[in-house]
Amino acid sequence: MRESIKAAVSLYGNLLFWVGMWDLLWFWGSPTLGREVGYALAGLVLTLGSDTLHANGAVGSGWMSAETAAKRWVTNARIVFGLIGSLMLWVGIFDIEAEHFLLNSSDPDERATQLALLKDCLMLFAGLVGLRWLGVYFEICNMPLSDPHMAPCLGACCDSSEHADGLRDNGSAEARVLRTSWLATLSVCAQCALWLGLWNLLENYGKASWVRELLYMGGGLALCHLAGALKLKENLSANQDELYKPQAWSGWVECRALASCIGQFMHIVGAWTVFDMLIGSFDSAARNWLYCALGIAGMAWAGSLSSHAGTSAAPMAMTARGSREERMRKVRQLLPQTGVALMQESEALGLTLAVNEAMEVVHGHAVDEMDGQWSGARI
Prior knowledge:
Elements: H1 2-26, H2 33-49, H3 53-57, H4 66-69, H5 72-99, H6 114-134, H7 137-140, H8 162-169, H9 173-203, H10 210-226, H11 240-244, H12 251-278, H13 285-302, H14 324-334, H15 337-349, H16 352-363, H17 366-374
Helix pairs in contact: 1-5, 1-12, 1-13, 2-5, 5-9, 6-9, 9-12, 10-12, 15-16, 16-17
């Protein structure tokens, strides 16, 4: 029961912080294309510098070693710059797509046209196809496959691709970081497009009300639950069995992933509208700063503050996957006994990097698949 309460506090604390900070950024200065590009570029710099960009895009691992990331001051810096950078990145990209592509979706006169409906459907479709093409679709949906290549490939692949492996083997760390950063940026663009399209389709027709928004929230959570991608535990992360169980692709898995993806963003649309439009005034700086403070306090109390650094406003899609002990237990189950012995020995000596090397020697490509889950790539 206590974990469920902390999970809910973590989820909505993160959302409160996003709503408050988003409105503060949105009302700062004039909403011009130059401002939005500036936000996006500043967000890229901050998330790259804090090694949280890949977490925003759910793409593989970052450039920072686990040994460096484990330092307390580094962790604190990544939390601050990761949270701020993520907000600026998402605000910039979302507003560019909403206000400067085809038409201004924020203008009441323009969003009531047939072109606006066409744009919303196009953005929703482009977001789904983009995530699928980039190879992060199942990760975003909380149903990552044991091997991304199991699913029919539409285009690019993430860190597990042969090309990325070749870069790693050849020691081209800079090339791998650039490629991961590029894929993560495209992933954020696709997520923003999906969110924008679904948001407008759900909110632009009819008047916002408590009943409708609560139905969106409940319906979104229900879809995630029915898809098997939601468990009220460990900060509302995905079902642990689904995360670690080797999962072959099938049409049924594809349908479950779609339900989970739509459910997550539907829940966010409803909850965001409740906090942003139905409680207080969204242009009130005092309310928005209060939201930020309450959100930070909630995540800190729930012990998930670092988990949400470098993630989207849909925290169910990208939260930490359980405690470190839980991740270590899962790793031990997956690795041969030799690897387990080496890991235990390395842990006893406090050599985190040696653990990664042992995993790589024993299990080959498995280290790439587990990197984002175990080595602290998502902080």
